[in-house]
Amino acid sequence: QVQLVESGGGLVQPGGSMRLSCAASGNIFAFYILGWYRQAPGKQRELVADITSRGITNYADSTRGRSTIFRDIAKNTVYLQMTSLKPEDTAVYYCNARQVATGMEFWGKGTLVTVSS
Q1: Is-contact 99 84, C-beta < 8 A?
Q2: Residue 13 CB coordination number (10 Å)
Q3: Residue 10 reports pLDDT greater than 90
Q4: What are the C-alpha distances in Å from 54 to residues 1, 10, 70?
Q5: Angstrom distances, CA of residue 97 to CA of 12, 13, 41
């Protein structure tokens, strides 16, 4: 069982930046793709960025250039750094771990990010 715990959400002013953290249990980086998703009010959950076990990153068009996903293997933590935040970035941000070969997937409980002045 994989456990994912997000932190770092809160209120951010437009144009500001944030860093979200996702602490994972177990030897997760070798076997799972780690990702950040978000769900805005009234909208479907969408991918923000993910990183493979080899460290290959992938970004959604809506956040490419403003977001960076990276990991600290020693700390078993994956991060999402976002800059130039906009009100439309307001959402609950979820950490996800998925294993393509088996279809196994785990989610954190999410952390709310509100971009507002």
Answers
A1: no
A2: 10
A3: yes
A4: 22, 31, 12
A5: 26, 29, 23
